[in-house]
Amino acid sequence: MKNLKGIISALLVSYNADGSINEKGLREIIRYNIDKMKVDGLYVGGSTGENFMLSTEEKKQIFRIAKDEAKDQVALIAQVGSVNLHESIELGKYATELGYDCLSAVTPFYYKFSFAEIKNYYDTIIAETGNNMIVYSIPFLTGVNIGVEQFGELYKNPKIIGVKFTAGDFYLLERVKRAYPNHLIWAGFDEMMLSAAVLGVDGAIGSTFNVNGVRARQIFEYAQQGKIAEARAIQHVTNDLIEGILSNGLYLTIKELLKLDGVDAGYCREPMTKELTPEKVAFAKELKAKYLA
Ligand SMILES: CC(=O)N[C@@H]([C@@H](O)[C@H](O)[C@H](O)CO)[C@@H](O)CC(=O)C(=O)O
After folding, report:
1. Residue 160 lies in a domain
2. % of the chain exceeding 90 in pLDDT
3. What is the pLDDT of residues 146-158, one digit of tens each?
4. In the annotation, is 136 catalytic?
5. Per the omega criterion (within 30 degrees of 0), is the bond before 158 cis?
6. How far apart are CA 122 and CA 243, in angstroms?
7. Which of 36, 206, 271, 274 is within CB 3.0–4.6 Å of 190 for a Cys-Cys bond?
8. What is the pLDDT of residue 2?
9. How many domains is the chain partitioned into structurally?
10. Cβ(46) – ligand 1 distance below 6 Å
């Protein structure tokens, strides 16, 4: 298995105006991440890929294209989580056969699943695929909170190697790292990366790394070296950029920033708004000139 630590881009997907996958654009986004952002890996099929609005076949198509384009250049993590466990297993087997280095699965959502049901979901995907697993915890979207002891229960399965922690609860993050130092944590909120890095996370997985991956690495590496003032200065600029991106529409604005660099990043997939208004395009241009020139 490849090294999964470091800066992992949550891969954006380019869609055509009718919502179909724009393969050429997706390949360009992948190349941009590897060649320009110099990321350590790609997290494929996450929130940033607009995954939860796709059919099983479309999810497979994206896994296939990403593997074909990235080959073995960077670590590849396939997010296969779904409220349909059968789909998760099918996707997990598919990505494993393609050669993905690791799986990840969002905690099952919508229904109020018990912890025993959540644990069974992870154990079942792992048993059926034989691959390693990263828990994807994103309570603000799923409503699922996992406590310190529950992480311990999940980690009894030796194939669960850690958690993608998309939350601002740094006390919980610190307690989990303290309790399970051999399990990995990837920070999920790019705007809080420095705080997470100071607490010893092993890497970060984020949407904004598609365009701001170089700064993300600087923050992470400075923090690891104990150069906090330097890291903070870069986090400040990063957060000025992220604040602008969030105010303008997260994925569409990142796509627009890629387009301004010649990448065919396409549209978003409905029911998300498909494209930016002319005013928002103009604002994205300002962000590009100010922060990513
Ligand atoms: C909901 C969401 O998009 N969260 C992002 C963050 O990178 C986030 O976009 C960023 O920190 C801005 O808030 C990641 O945690 C999600 C992610 O890695 C994924 O695509 O699954």
Report:
1. yes
2. 99
3. 999 999 999 999 9
4. yes
5. no
6. 34
7. 206
8. 86
9. 1
10. yes
Report the C-alpha gap between 232 and 226 in whole angstroms.
11
Ligand 1, atom 1: nearest CA belongs to which residue?
47
| CB of 101 shorter than 6 A to ligand 1 | no
Q: Binding-site residues for pyruvate, please?
A: 48, 205
Average pLDDT score over residue span 249-274: 98
Q: What is the pLDDT of residues 11-66, one digit of tens each?
A: 999 999 999 999 999 999 999 999 999 999 999 999 999 999 999 999 999 999 99
Cα distances (angstroms) measured from residue 121 to each of 3, 61, 146, 267: 25, 24, 14, 33
**What is the helix (H) or strand (E) element at residue 213, kind and residue range?**
helix 209-224
Enter the tokens of residue 200: 């010893």
Residue in this structure with the two tokens 């349909």, named with its chain if needed: 84
Query: What is the atom index within ligand 1 of the atom nearest the CA of 189?
Result: 11
Tokens of 231: 């890291």
Residue 253 structure tokens: 């604005």
Atom of ligand 1 nearest to the CA of 136: 21
Tens-digit pLDDT profile for residues 64-77:
999 999 999 999 99
Is the pLDDT at 197 greater than 80? The verdict is yes
CATH number of residue 130's parent domain:
3.20.20.70
Nearest CA, atom 9, ligand 1: 207
The model's confidence at residue 225, banded by pLDDT at 50, 70 and 90, is very high
The answer to the question of residue 286 being in a domain is: no
Q: Determine the structural domain holding residue 146 and report its residue range.
A: 6-226
Question: What does the alpha-carbon distance between residue 182 and residue 93 come to, in Å, rounded to a whole number?
Answer: 26
Q: Is the CB of 272 under 6 A from ligand 1?
A: no
Q: What is the ipTM of this complex?
A: 0.98
Does 265 map to a domain? Answer: no
Please identify which of the residues 43, 136, 267, 291 carries the catalytic annotation.
136
In a domain, 166, yes or no: yes
Distance, CA of 238 to CA of 215 (rounded, Å): 7
On whether the CB atoms of residues 206 and 10 are closer than 8 A, the answer is yes
